[in-house]
């Protein structure tokens, strides 16, 4: 009984960890996109081997994006207490073998794909995607603030403390605010509650006399990302294969469909 | 011909269609199977429920199917067939030039059949361009930069051999270059959807028109920027247009950007048949308005005049079609297929 309790807790933790992995192209969690198909546990709960099975919308999805997701899965799940080893399994992909070898074998992207990389690594690509994610998150917050009646001048001098206090009343902006903040702080663009809440990716303060052009540029970034997001969801929907449910136990499908609240598993199973 | 609710006749040129054979019999390997399945997933993902096809019909459809879907049930006056070879994936090619010509025999005036080549073939590519010009008098080509060939997983429009091919197109008066920017595989450490090679090619070959299919999505911003600067860069609406059904507001955002940056004279309708059929696309497009708030941001709207350009007049211009005489000719030769 005790073991089941532990296993179920770990299952919830793994799901939460997977939700922190985003598709780099879309900046949306792989769990929301339906990419994760199964999670298998082996070994005792304090020394578990976790296998994560994921599938992308098409056989052709760019292998560098696939690698970044596989690497994120390995990092996030591998960082959980009690997990000794993570095995990532990519299904039905033209470069599945190479991606798995790069991640599970610890060889890294560059070594496995050397002949296709012109000798470069993924740092430039990572930086590009991080910038786009920052812009998409920021746009969502800016658009909502303007809709709530904040003037461009007041947005330009808004502090983090003020931003935190705004009542977005749910919706996209409420979901994106903490995600925007996380990248803002990680990049060192703001550190203290009194720091400016908005800067562009290069670190410059936003103009107080008309944000229209700036927001229009961010909108284009979002339009691009939404295009892929919408296509990927549609394609995934037609390719997705149902995971079998197992007698009474919460399965991966339950987690995917939100039937199992994050912490409730450990409370109800004892 | 699309007839508006007010009774106005709109000339429709479908800028990008296929006559493919993706059937299991023609598949060379797993890649061929996955390729047509990917197309089928696009079809399923973005079509209205009552427009869905059975998989076997989608894999291989007949000439009669095509005539009916485009010209009898559908509103197309003309269609531009794009050749997509994919020789590494299909035994007899996916979309084959000769097969397209056989299919088009019954109504030659309704089709423009574009060729295709692979600049990685070097001298052979040049010879093949000559062959296509002499045999079929092609006016345009379709280039698919993400195509695999042996160890190569793609190429760029500004590669040296690609430039040799463009020089020859220019010399032979083959003016229209349709570019499909699929995800390029190499170099793997770069953005897989980069469209900047279009910029170089368009600058260096001012006599050629570059029609970028699906408007460079998912790099719409880069595409818009290039199209603003290069007068010979156009946007094809393949894949973009079906969003009008599943996500109409989002479609409005894309159209607002395209109209603002690229302009109403450089956007071309296409159904991407048989991924989608033109009937529902054209009907929805004609009845569509960009939502007010989005239109106001960019100061643009899809007026009837602009829709007419996009649906046919723009393609007619770059392909040298005299619309009035073409209409008269087509009216005299109605399309018919065997009764079912």
TrEMBL record, chain A:
Give the species this sequence originates from: Amaricoccus macauensis
Matching InterPro entries = FSCA_dom_sf, MIP18-like
Write the protein's name: Metal-sulfur cluster biosynthetic enzyme
**Annotated ranges, domain MIP18 family-like:** 13-87
Pfam families in alphabetical order? FeS_assembly_P
Domain of life from the UniProt record: Bacteria
From TrEMBL, chain B:
Domain annotation Amidohydrolase-related: ranges: 13-321
What GO molecular function terms would the record report?
hydrolase activity
A Pfam family in this protein?
Answer: Amidohydro_2
Checking SUPFAM superfamilies in the record gives: Metallo-dependent hydrolases (SSF51556)
What is the protein name given in its UniProt record?
Amidohydrolase-related domain-containing protein
Organism of origin: Amaricoccus macauensis
Its lineage reads:
Bacteria, Pseudomonadati, Pseudomonadota, Alphaproteobacteria, Rhodobacterales
